[in-house]
Structures are given as C-alpha cells and as structure tokens.
Write a structure and sequence with these properties.
Layout: E1 5-6, E2 14-15, E3 26-27, E4 33-34, H1 44-58, E5 66-69, E6 75-83, E7 86-87, E8 93-98, H2 109-112, E9 118-119, E10 123-132, E11 136-142, E12 146-153, E13 171-176
Parallel strand pairs: 1-5, 5-8
Antiparallel strand pairs: 2-9, 3-4, 6-7, 6-8, 6-10, 11-12, 12-13
C-alpha cells in the first residue's frame, strides 16, 4: 500500500467551538475561540485520541500524512505543525476540508454560530488555504509518488447544477511522498 488517507467525520485542525469537536475550544463572548470557559459536555479523552491519531499519521514512513474531512462546511487546506506538546514540524499533517456541495445560506457555521472554521487554540496550523464558506468539492488523483488535489467552487445561486461537470479548479495542490 502506497497511500493511506484518513477520513474522519470530525475534522482535525479547525473548530467552530461546537461541543462534539476534538478540541476544548468554545466560542467566547468576544466571538473568538477560547479555553478560558469550560466547554459543556466535552470530554478530554477526545483530545487525547486526536493527539494519538495525529501522531500516528505524522509518523507514517514514506507516506503523505493526509487527513480529509468535510464536516465544517468549508473548503480549506492546512498543515498541522503542532498539537499540544506534539511537534510535527518535520512532517506536518496535511488537513483538507473537502467542502460541501449543497449547504444552504443558513447552513454555514458563521451564519448560526457566529464563527467559521478557525484553528483550535490547541494547535499550530499553517493555513495554506483559509476556510472558505462556499459550496464546493475536491477531486484527488493518486499516483505512486504524489497526490494531486483539485479544489472546485459551486454556487447554486448563480450556477446551474449542469455546470458541475465542466467546472475548472480554483486551486491545485500536489503533495509529494517523502
């Protein structure tokens, strides 16, 4: 097996302060993520499991450390360089938010939470593509030595679904195997 992609339902890297996320962050009164206030119902084991998983992803020899998820209703790409005390600087975990194809106007996290996808305070994330709250999707092409990810946007307000097959990517990222 050459490539291994991790696809959890709850994306690592970013948070909207929701109780079921990996991180202890919650939306503060100032509209920013904080850990100064305890998050109701949140369990510390979630963060421990996150850190164990990210450590294993970063430690895979000869593989691209890649995680793709779509639950935050955004399109994004980042590199997780640190999680808590764990340092992934030598082999950052690439995290991609794959985008939603059909989120409506009120379905964006910023519309009902007051905050879009934001890096957790528990992490150091380099946001190569900051989260975009637009409908879209990715296509990933796998070859022996690389994974090429193409990012697409789609607006149901201005485009017919018929154009989805002819969309051009607005971003292309090539990830090379170490």
């Amino acid at each position: 097996m050459v490539h291994l992609v991790n696809i959890p339902s709850n994306p690592p890297g970013w948070s909207a302060g929701k109780w079921g996320e990996w991180y202890p962050d919650i939306l503060g009164k100032d509209g920013k993520l904080t850990t100064d206030v305890p998050k109701p119902y949140w369990q510390s084991g979630w963060l421990k499991q996150h850190d164990r998983l990210m450590a294993e992803v970063a430690a895979m020899p000869g593989r691209i450390p890649l995680v793709i998820s779509g639950d935050l209703h955004a399109i994004a790409e980042g590199r997780m360089r640190r999680s808590g005390a764990l340092d992934f600087g030598k082999n950052p975990v690439v995290v991609i938010l794959s985008g939603p194809l059909g989120t409506g106007d009120r379905g964006w996290p910023s519309a009902f939470r007051g905050i879009g996808a934001t890096p957790s305070t528990h992490l150091t994330m380099v946001e190569d593509l900051k989260p975009i709250e637009e409908n879209g999707f990715i296509l990933a092409d796998f070859t022996r030595d690389a994974i090429t990810v193409r990012y697409f946007r789609f607006s149901y307000h201005t485009q017919s679904p018929d154009v989805i097959d002819t969309l051009e990517p607005f971003r292309v990222t090539e990830l090379k195997r170490p």
